[in-house]
Amino acid sequence: MGAAGLLGLDRAKISNIETGIRTIGPERLRTLACNCDCSDQAYVEALVSMARSNGRGWWERYRGALAPGLLDIAELESHAVRMRTAHIAHILGLLQTSDHALELFRAVLPPLPEHEIALRLAFRAERQQVLASDNPPEYVGLVHEAALRMQFDGPKVARAQLEHLLALSERPAVRLHVIPFAAGTFPGAGQTVNYLQGPVPRLDTVQIDNSHGPDFLGDEAQLAKYRAPLDWMERIALSAEDSRAFIHGIIDSP
Which of 8, 98, 163, 232 makes the best surface tag, with the fewest CB within 10 Å? Predict the structure, then answer.
C-alpha cells in the first residue's frame, strides 16, 4: 500500500507534505513510521514532538515570497537544541545588525529588488528571535578576525555591529569565539558552515551557504566531515572571555 492509501490522503496532499507545504499530524506520522519499520523510537518521538509543537511555523508567512531554502533554515533553527556555526568573512547571520544585513543584501548579484530586500530583512529579524526565546538553543558562534575587521557600509555600521556582538555574547545561551589571524591555518577556512543539532542525532543537519542558495546535508558520513573542522576551529579559537576582550580591542583601536 502506498503512503496515500496508508494515511487516507490523496496523492496531492502527500506531495504537499513532502515539499513542506502541508504538515503531518502526530498519529499519521506514527502510522507512517510503523509501516516503514522504523525501530528508532527516540527518533520517532522527536519527529512526533516536532509535528505536535509548532504546526505551521511563522516562516510559512513568507512561502511564495522568499526562496524555500530560506524557510528551511528558519524551521531547522526552530527545532535545534544546539547550533554551532562558523563564518570567515561575514558576521554570523543570527548576530547581525539590520544595517549590516542590509549592506550584504544590497551586494547580491544580480541586484535584489527593494521589496525583496525588505522581506529578507524582516525574515532575518524574525529568525534572530530564536535566540531570545524562553528556551533558546545553545548557540556556539565561531567568527574569524577577518569578519570582525570588515567595514561593510563604513566604520560607523561596523562599530555598531561589533558592539551588538558583545551585547549578544553576554547571553547565557550564546558562546562567541574569535579565531584571530594569528591562529594560522585550519580546515574549512573557505566555507560558511552551520551545524544544527536536533533533539536526536538523526535529526542533525548541516547547512552551507552558496551563491545559488543554501544546501542541506544530513547523512552521518557528511555530518562527521563538518563536525571535525568545527571541532578544530573551536580548539584554536579564543575563549569566550578573551574573544570579548579581542572585539573590545578592535572597537578601541584607531
Answer: 8
How far apart (Å, rounded) are the C-alpha atoms in residues 30 and 126?
A: 31
Q: Count CB-CB contacts under 10 A for residue 33.
A: 18
- Mean pLDDT, each 10-residue run in order, the chain (254 residues): 59 62 66 64 64 74 95 94 94 97 93 96 98 96 97 95 98 97 88 92 93 90 94 96 97 88
User: What's the CA angle centered on 86, arms 82 and 87, to 5 degrees?
Assistant: 140
d(CA 7, CA 29): 9
Three cell numbers at 115?
Answer: 521589496
**Cα–Cα distance measured from residue 98 to residue 44, given in angstroms and rounded to the nearest whole number:** 38
Residue 239's SS3 state is: coil
Contacting residues for 32 by C-beta, under 8 A, at least 6 apart = 3, 6, 7, 24
Distances (CA, A) of 149 to 91, 112, 196, 226, 240: 10, 26, 27, 26, 18
Residue type, 214: P
Of 95, 77, 78, nearest in space to 86 by CA:
95
What is the set of domains in the chain, with CATH numbers? 1-56 (no CATH), 66-252 (3.30.870)
CA–CA distance from 167 to each of 97, 110, 127 (Å)? 12, 34, 18
Distance, in Å, from the CA atom of 21 to the CA atom of 5, rounded to the nearest integer, reads: 19
